[in-house]
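Intended use. Records such as the acetate--CoA ligase entry shown here are meant for training and evaluating sequence-to-structure methods. They are not intended to support clinical decisions.
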Amino acid sequence: MGVLEKEILAPVSGTYNLENYEAIRETFSWDDAAKGLSFEKTGKINAAYETIDRHVDEGYGDKIALHYVDGDERRILTFKEVKEKTDLYARVLRDNGVRKGDRVFVFLPKTPECYISILAIIKIGAIAGPLFEAFMEEAVKDRINDCKGTVLITDKEMVKRVPQSEIQSLHTILDVENIENTVYEETAADPVEWVDLEDGMLIHYTSGSTGKPKGVLHAHRAVIHHYVSGKWVLDVKDDDVYWCTSHPGWVTGSVYGLFAPWLNRATIVIQGGRFKAENWYRLIAELKVTIWYSAPTAFRMLLSQGDILKNYDLSSLRHVLSVGEPLNPEVIYWAWEQLGVRIHDTWWMTETGGHLIVNLPAEKIKPGSMGRPFPGITVGILDEKGKELPRGSVGQLAVRTPWPGLMKEIWGNQDRFDAYFKYEGWYVSGDLAYQDEEDYVFFQSRDDDMINSAGERIGPFEVESKLIEHPAVAEAGVIGKPDPIRGELVKAFITLRPGFTESKELLEEIRVFVRNNLAAHVAPREIEVLEELPKTVISGKILRRELKEMEILRTKKSN
Ligand code: WTA
């Protein structure tokens, strides 16, 4: 690929929702962008109403809202059916004492019921907390406890991983099957609660490099950002079939798996089950998916499986997007040659609530770059004093505040919230990047110890804390080790307590201990025992950076 490395990809000919992007960048205002949403006319807002009910009121009730695919199972729901189910769930929640502002969690696999639960919670003015389906007891408990969730929607299988006795605030657990079987009079009142743009709607827990995961709270105003980025970046049109591969427990799965496409009235695909190249290709061919949003790790896995894509008709694909981790130029060229589509990288974070740096479909793509700032967004590359650096210099990737998707708070932790805004007028991302003369932004690395494995944010502190709970582990330092498929994989360096000796079995036992208590995706894929861990002289803090440098040096030597 060496020769092609710098080749710029021109837009594929076609018509896109946003063509005159340079002019829009000059005149953009968020107020204009919100036109098309109903609160602009009525003055009343509710994100769930805007996402689903509005389309029924505007005459699109019979349009297909979702295709559900899991193994051989197939289900279809129209917008009207999604609205009615959402109403039902909303009434059950009300009858179980849920009120505006309460935190209600959803712990379900990727099923229509998971999406409907999230909307129902928001519909009655409560705050939805979607949990990733693979979480184990401790991860579930920590999150619900942190913001004192009162009600949880789950099912008979997953409830086994909910340690209810350790979650004091949780007074009710609802089984989706029971909700589905509840019957209300046809004349029951409309459950929509009209709220303020600033009222909370969604809480996502995400990792930082220190401490437990933080609860990132978004307000109803975020739907303005979801709506317009769905229109311009996802380029959703009425005849599209849209598939986002992420689970709604992650912010990509909620914002760009649920809100943004549905705000733009897309027919979405909800797929159950684990990643398997054949199944993914079959799904695209069967449902004639036109827009596909996934992550570099998934694309790299598909690429590594070689020619099997030739067995499927993937010609329906017209627009492909990527998020969550650096997208290698090699992957972009693979998709271009094999699928005839460009992969459009997008950059944002749980905290930013929506896209901030994007490759618009009508703009040229520079492989290796995440794209250009979204209209209305100003990026700055800052030095350690918060001063803007000239083009081409690597510095802290920051964004001018505010914008509608920007988080409202970190639940119960003003200090952690304030840390993002240490320079007046800027949101500081924690990423390092540079920007070229044409505004394209190039990701360099994180500015902290956060690990990004397969696009999932993993806080080393959380993994280290779990490791040292194991009786054999004295100390632990956890890093992201570079990996060709997953970007990084979780590697732990540990020291053993006296009386324990290293063995394959012991290391496996430690790994399983983390997996069973926290979650599979955070369990170290490699554990290495050291005599001692590098530490700072004064505070005795474990130096993850040194561990990482050592690991990178070794990998280089062995190649
Ligand atoms: C990283 C996911 C390179 C980045 C939406 C960021 C990326 C963190 C990209 C946020 C990209 C996200 N290229 N790195 N296109 N997109 N990241 O909160 O380090 O799970 O700070 O949000 O992922 O992860 P989060």
